[in-house]
Amino acid sequence: MQFVQTNMGEQVNRVLVDALGGFLKVEDVVNGAFELIEDESKAGACLWISKRKGMVYWPTSAKENKYLVYSPKTKKELVKNRFPSIQPPEYFHKMVVHTLSHNFRNATRLERVRLRLPIEPHNTLVKIIYAGVNASDVNFSSGRYFSVNSKEAASHLPFDAGFEAVGIVASVGDSVKHIKVGTSVALMTFGSYAEFVLVLLSMTCHYTTSMVPSIATNLELQIFWEALHISWIG
């Protein structure tokens, strides 16, 4: 644990802060964020910033080898697969919240729905490969993000579940020029618990070719999201 020297951080008991090595400066966090953003070779890395050790990239080589699912040779070969074509389906499955409840299982059900075509000009259709399970899912399914008024929250039903995902672009609208079919992308958008999702171009973030979702391990996805969150904060 490490505290950053902000107005909120300074409310923490100073004895605890000192025991952990003192405050981190805001500038240190900002510099770390820019290092991840500006150096493409660091894509997929997690930068650990602490008072005692400074900036340390994680995982170390030893940790990476420990958790790697595929051998380096196999991984290198699979990265070459750029998914040149993904056939958009007529129907797909998605998770939908039908009842406001903190119990996610009771609040949701799996539905088979028709894909809305044609795709809007500024939209991209993404084939979801991995979706992030978020602690906030239960707050979302209970309606807490809509309103403190349960009646008003219920007026939003039904709504799609899921916040975060990584996947492959399956199709693009006519106005989308710089993202092509087969591109690996990350998303932060509602409705990520689905086989496919339609999103605005502004809601996608590129992967690098070294982080193709089809071969990403759980460890790599965790590292990627750490870096992605820092990048967006920066």
UniProtKB/TrEMBL annotation:
Lineage of the species this protein comes from: Eukaryota, Viridiplantae, Streptophyta, Embryophyta, Tracheophyta
Domain spans labelled Alcohol dehydrogenase-like N-terminal: 121-194
Protein known as: ARP protein (REF)
InterPro entries: ADH-like_N (IPR013154), GroES-like_sf (IPR011032), Zn-ADH-like_protein (IPR051397)
Pfam families the record matches: ADH_N
Species, as recorded: Zea mays
Domain of life: Eukaryota
